[in-house]
Amino acid sequence: MDMNQLRAFITVAHTQNLTQAAEKLFLSQPAVSAQIKAIENDVGTPLFKRVSNGMVLTRAGEVLLPEAEALLQHKHKLEAFACTLSEDYVQNAQLGLIHPIDANKVTELTRLMMHEHPNVQLHIQYGMSGEILSRILAKKLHGGFFLGTINQRNLQSIFLENIAYSLICPQQDAPRLLADLPKSLNDFTWVEMSHVSGSYKNLQQFWHRHKLSPKKQIICDYPQTIIDLVAAGTGLAMVPKHKAQTALAQKRTIAIIDEFEQQLPLSFIYLDEYGQDPSLVMMRQSIERIWRS
Description:
Blueprint: H1 3-15, H2 18-25, H3 29-43, E1 48-51, E2 54-57, H4 59-83, E3 91-97, H5 103-116, E4 120-126, H6 129-137, E5 143-147, E6 155-170, H7 174-178, E7 190-192, H8 198-209, E8 217-219, H9 223-231, E9 237-240, H10 241-249, E10 254-271, H11 278-292
Parallel strand pairs: 3-4, 3-5, 7-8
Antiparallel strand pairs: 1-2, 5-10, 6-9, 6-10
Helix pairs in contact: 1-2, 1-3, 1-4, 2-3, 5-11
């Protein structure tokens, strides 16, 4: 068996679906099926059984999976070590950030990593939670931050904190809004982020919980512009509380509706197979120090 076969086996085990596994591996479904067949021939026993909604591991597959994952982790660790043998070696660390994180923590984290690891070339990529997740799964990032709940077998997730989200409205509309809550929330345009943002699912649940069906929405993926639109009288929005409070301190014409504060979990996520990668270990340790201090 080779590493490609092991990677296919692990991916099918995690997704429990050949089509999804093929998409993640950028292969055709027949190619993934052939790799699974080849590894089953090597071990001499079936590793999966088909069920109505996909594929599940047999007992032999369950025993093999942690060994295969450990071998893949060791391969990445060995490759990372081999790179350090070059005279021109520069350690790179790719970190995915999302806008809801307090800017002060981003500054502290960057300063800590640069102080304790001066020879590391840090590359910070901003995006929304869904985009960061996609880049991690595509192995374009060592790790990144994610807002909301996540349950994916091939990912590790470290909970860091809950981020408070506040409902904001144009200052002049606050009395009318407060007079008939929550029904009055239906009367306004909502400014929301797209479905790849961590706050999107939470907002949909908020609407469902309060039996709301907003007639008009504006999609905007930049948090500061969302606050600008609300201040200009465009509509309502859910934004990180610390950003709403900063806007109030800057005398922006918004109001915070305290009755509807939400708490969203912030986590640091990374692929299992990169758990021992030096760049990932460095980032994980630095993040835990900043958030636990």
